[in-house]
């Protein structure tokens, strides 16, 4: 095959390939081995799906509904290019009895539009707005796999991991933020065997590129859109977007801007020093030098002194997660959470903010007991050893893989709690041995 991302090469018999893929899928689900004609991209996706605990008889879960879905869609960046998607793909989808679908970076469907009969059929497998079609939820599928591997991909028939999706063919391409390069989501076309053609993948890829160009050309609609924005989740060095430019901050400057953004009234030198340094021997001169370098980096007028403060409001991805948690939009908060805030920072105040944000979100996820949201957290780097989340996941989705992982964590916890007894005549700190 000339293009490994295309499901069928020109001239291939769809019926014959469908039968061969069905046999290969049965072999994999029974024995865990992959045979031809399964493409490498599909085989890798099947293995990821199995490791995530997805079963072939599973189905997608609808986790955003009504007001929660509407609020999330309204503020999602891809909302601005939905008219473009409808113009380029909408008529094609309606005329061909296909569906136009758009998902976010977590594989959550935001829009599903197209032929009414096809929409009704797709609804039987929960291919509907608000449903989660990430690989970790329903296995191999075009929108979920496209955002997972960050490549345009086509999925045909029994290449889908869950059997309910196997009558369908879909092609999807990721859409990126033109400023940061991050995946915003994917645009997808879903229908019958007629889409199992290289042209459908090329078409959807061209639509995704057009959307990225459109996003890059959008002009600000008001002063608020020029407000500085801080990205601090899942990164040790913050990225500050200000006045049309992006500034990468050092770790110390990242901590300072995070703290000042949360204190618009400003902080004195002593307050900022206590928030930043565990070592009280750090001199005021050291802090003043850091602030002087930061002022030169940010440009004139953004950082003031006496007290130290930012002269304009600075938004952040962390504040967005907090706002969504406050309003009860748990799924939307989880979608915006890209990882711990400045994870390597040892600044006392930053560490408190980081713990408070992570604990608030994980507590909300545990209380909500949504297996897909719990699985996303558990399989993320920051949740791999979060035993409370794994326990909640095991209670809601007790697959063999989840139970095995939980048992391993329970064993590690029990081993870590065992301490050697202190020698005679000496006492352990605090009068007793303690677990970490």
TrEMBL record:
Source species, domain of life: Bacteria
InterPro entries per record: GAF, GAF-like_dom_sf, OmpR/PhoB-type_DNA-bd
Record's keyword annotation contains DNA-binding: yes
Keywords: DNA-binding
UniProt-listed Pfam families: GAF
Domain OmpR/PhoB-type: 244-310
Entry protein name: GAF domain-containing protein
């Amino acid at each position: 095959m000339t293009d490994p991302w295309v499901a069928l090469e020109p001239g291939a018999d769809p019926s014959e390939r469908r039968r061969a893929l069905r046999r290969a899928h049965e072999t994999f689900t029974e024995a865990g081995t992959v045979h031809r004609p399964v493409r490498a991209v599909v085989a890798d996706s099947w293995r990821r799906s199995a490791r995530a605990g997805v079963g072939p008889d599973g189905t997608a879960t609808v986790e955003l509904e009504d007001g929660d879905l509407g609020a999330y869609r309204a503020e999602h960046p891809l909302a601005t290019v939905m008219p473009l998607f409808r113009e380029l793909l909408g008529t094609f989808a309606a005329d061909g009895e296909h569906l136009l679908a758009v998902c976010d970076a977590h594989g959550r469907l935001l829009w599903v539009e197209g032929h009414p009969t096809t929409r009704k059929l797709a609804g039987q497998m929960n291919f509907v707005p608000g449903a989660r079609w990430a690989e970790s939820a329903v296995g191999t599928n075009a929108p979920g796999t496209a955002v997972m591997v960050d490549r345009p991909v086509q999925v045909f028939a029994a290449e889908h991991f869950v059997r309910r999706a196997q009558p369908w063919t879909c092609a999807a391409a990721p859409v990126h933020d033109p400023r940061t390069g991050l995946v915003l989501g994917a645009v997808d076309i879903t229908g019958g065997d007629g889409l199992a053609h290289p042209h459908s993948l090329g078409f959807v890829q061209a639509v995704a590129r057009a959307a990225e160009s459109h996003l890059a050309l959008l002009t600000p609609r008001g002063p608020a859109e020029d407000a500085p924005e801080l990205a601090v989740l899942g990164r040790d060095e913050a990225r500050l977007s200000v006045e049309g430019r992006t500034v990468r901050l050092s770790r110390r400057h990242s901590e300072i801007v995070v703290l000042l953004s949360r204190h618009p009234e400003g902080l004195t030198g002593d307050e900022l020093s206590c928030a930043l340094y565990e070592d009280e021997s750090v001199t005021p001169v050291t802090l003043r030098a850091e602030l002087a370098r930061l002022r030169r980096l940010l440009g004139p007028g953004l950082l003031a002194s006496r007290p130290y403060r930012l002269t304009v409001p600075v938004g952040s991805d962390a504040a967005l997660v907090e706002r969504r948690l406050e309003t009860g939009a748990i799924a939307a908060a989880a979608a915006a959470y890209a990882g711990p805030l400045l994870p390597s920072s040892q600044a006392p105040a930053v560490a408190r903010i980081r713990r408070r944000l992570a604990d608030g979100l994980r507590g909300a996820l545990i209380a909500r007991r949504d297996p897909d949201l719990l699985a996303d957290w558990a399989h993320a780097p920051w949740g791999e050893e979060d035993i409370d989340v794994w326990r909640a996941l095991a209670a809601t989705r007790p697959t063999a893989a989840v139970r095995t992982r939980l048992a391993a964590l329970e064993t590690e916890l029990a081993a870590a709690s065992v301490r050697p007894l202190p020698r005679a005549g000496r006492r352990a700190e605090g009068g007793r041995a303690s677990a970490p």
